[in-house]
Design goal:
This protein has about 300 residues and is mainly α. It is about 80% helix and about 0% strand. The termini are far apart. About 20% of the residues are buried.
Length: about 300
Amino acid sequence: MTGLLFVTAALAALFLALALAWPRLTPDRRPRQIAQLAGPATARPAARPIPLAGVVAYLRARLRTEADVKARLAQAGRRADGEVAALLSRRLLWAIALTILALFTVTLGAAKGASVPLKLLLTFGAAGGGFWLPMLLLENAIQKRRAALTLSFPDGLDLLLICIDSGLSLDQALRRVADELAQDHPELADELAVTVSELAFLPDRRHCFDNLAARSGAVSIKTVTLALAQAERYGTPIAATLRAVAQDIRAERITLAEKAAGALPAKLTVPMILFFLPALLIVILGPAILAIAGGR
């Protein structure tokens, strides 16, 4: 077991050094960000691969493609340049930390007397759990941000429609809505601000709307962006398009609220049995039980 501890500690030190050196091993992709936003990338000459970075990039591609990771990070509101490297570093660090904790547990802790297969299972299970824990946290952040965008988007759409009816252009209306919603709905205001910036320099406006739909992941936002893209393509009035879509979104919001209200009694059954009913029985039967006990 001492040899296993030494090998695992050496591997942990290697992965820790690799995680800390990852930002320097990853080639700088910032000059290509505008070209990636502008549309599908054209054929480019392959960059000279760095040996160690190439191995790590291959392992990262085997787990999940970089484009997919960037898309998931963007849906969580993390669009910084080094977020992919930071996510991989966190996964490695969590795996190393939980592996070391598991090794101390199986050698010196509560699981000291367990069998060897159980010790190996705990060690590798802790390593795998630590490696996937940041991804679970990322998915949780994505779900929370998507729910916040879905909840706030009908209000933003109404405000956008009012701005367009008042005579503002689509770009000006989006900017005004982003400014007005910065306090109450920061997630939606952030996404609209990014869209306004893309509309300012990207040649294809429909691609800006597609980016907004991909970043948000909300069905209602995808519907509106599709309607805006069609309005830009065919020249239909934007106000009339948004008004028709807004009615559908309001109806969908009411339907979701009614569905949640209908499912509420079933969800409250178990909490009421576990928490409310015992307290009610104590309040009702408690005095009688005390009186009987006192009479004896």
